Amino acid sequence: MLFHPSKSKNNIMKVLLVDTALAAVPIYDYLVQEGHDVWVIGNREGDILARRAGSRWIQQDYRNYLEVEKHIEALHIERVVPGCTDVSLETCSRLKVSSSYADSPEINRKISNKLEFRRLCEELSMPAPLVVAKESFPLCGRFICKPVDAFSGRGVTIFDGGDQSAMVAAYQAAIEVSPSAGAIFETFAEGPLYSCSAFVENGKLTNSFYVREGSSAYEFAVDTSYIDHAVPERHMVTLEKSLEKLCGFLNLKDGLLHTQFILNESGPWIIELTRRCPGDLYSLLIEYSTGFKYAAKYASYFVGTQLITQSFEQRHVLRHTVSSVDTLIFCGIKFSPPVNVRAFFPLQTIGQILTGRQGTRAGILFCEQHSHDLLVEGYKSLLDRDIYTLS
After folding, report:
1. Residue 64 counted as domain residue
2. What is the mean pLDDT of the chain?
3. Do both 30 and 91 map to the same domain?
4. How far, rounded to the nearest angstrom, does the alpha carbon of residue 310 sit from its chain's CA centroid?
5. This prediction's pTM
6. Which of 122, 201, 256, 388 has its CA 20 to 30 A from that of 380?
């Protein structure tokens, strides 16, 4: 993994990283190279960090925060760092050791639960879709129904508000995948999807990165992205002012704030927020494109390091999660035309079944273009799925 360690080796601690999957590797690398005694926790022995950590891997389902707490006490863990999953962030918010540097469970719920977050957006007059009561239908226009507490686009449906049977089907699809059997109806925001990754310090945003995000295999799961330097400044100002209002209202701890939003002519429409590191090696998209040590910066807040990093280059890098629309047997990746590959991280071996609509992912691809125009062209080609075949 690309990493440049900081010069400070002070305040070495015993640290627990709550994640063992590939996306958390850049976080792990930073912690190790800073000299910390790094432990990891997760219940899958085949995960890359379970293998790399060796005797410092704790085989435990980290959804059970009380069991995690026992390991922390037994090992005298001094700091915990959430990885790249919603569950890891929720668990860390509940641990006693992290109470001074992580948001409380209540704050985390206000951000992560889609219904509570929409109520917060309304209270703070943030630009966001509006909640619509189930009893209000039928209504004119397009609407979207989501589980309040699921992820990866599962159980999400866009439907015609005048079609009562479609509304009922959308609601049923949402509650079936919701752990709490909860669903939310919202007005549907038209436009391309973006993310804004920034770091909160004393209630203000620093080091903001705007990323264009698209979907090729399943419309509600992002699989293709690149840094976009052309987002109009007025829209960035509107978004960041709203986010800083949120930071002050919730008194958020210093650290990452990752926001997904729809952008159209009227401006940004906030879809959701998270304070965990995004998955699918999003951190390397930022680092490969700009030189900014994103994963290191993210982790530094949890271990109390004053890490200073900056963007020092601008490269035209695409990130793409390789997957299939239809279920098939994985037989390798064949590019046509040739692609300038910066890195590829395989997630499946030859002969494995790839389930359609991102049910299974073959790997994560980073490719580089020579100009912004070629970058956009490559992005569109990946969304059209005419760059590679898998069988």
Report:
1. yes
2. 94
3. yes
4. 21
5. 0.94
6. 256
Q: 386: Cβ–Cβ under 8 A, 6 or more apart, which residues?
A: none
Same domain, 345 and 385: yes
Residue 214's SS3 state is strand
Answer whether residue 291 is part of any domain: no
And the tokens for 323? 């997957």
Instruction: Write down which residue in 159, 187, 215 finishes a domain.
Output: 187
Q: Has residue 23 been placed in a domain?
A: yes
152: CATH:
3.30.1490
Q: Grade residue 306 by pLDDT with cuts at 50, 70 and 90.
A: confident
Residue 330 · residue 362 · CB < 8 Å:
yes
Q: How far, CA to CA in Å, does 327 sit from each of 1, 49, 154, 182, 365?
A: 31, 28, 17, 30, 20
Bridge-based pairing of strands 57-59 and 37-42 is: parallel
Q: CATH number for the domain including 356? A: 3.90.1170
Strand 224-227 to 183-187 pairing: unpaired
Last residue within a domain, chosen from 171, 187, 203: 187
Output DSSP code: residue 55.
G
Instruction: Classify residue 68: in a domain, yes or no.
Output: yes
Residue type, 54: G
**What is the predicted pLDDT for the residue at 152?**
76
The SS3 of residue 7 is: coil
Can you give the residue range of the structural domain that contains 48? 14-103
Total count of domains within the chain: 3
Looking at the structure, do residues 81 and 149 belong to the same domain, yes or no? Answer: no
Helix runs in the chain, H state only? 25-33, 48-53, 65-75, 86-94, 105-112, 114-123, 164-177, 233-250, 282-290, 294-303, 372-384
Give residue-wise pLDDT tens across range 196-233: 999 999 999 999 999 999 999 988 999 999 999 999 99
DSSP string, 82-143: E-SSHHHHHHHHH-GGGTTTS--HHHHHHHHSHHHHHHHHHHTT-S-PPEE-GGG-S-SSEE
pLDDT in tens, 92-146: 999 999 999 999 999 999 999 999 999 999 999 999 999 999 999 999 999 999 9
pLDDT in tens, 374-391: 999 999 999 999 899 987
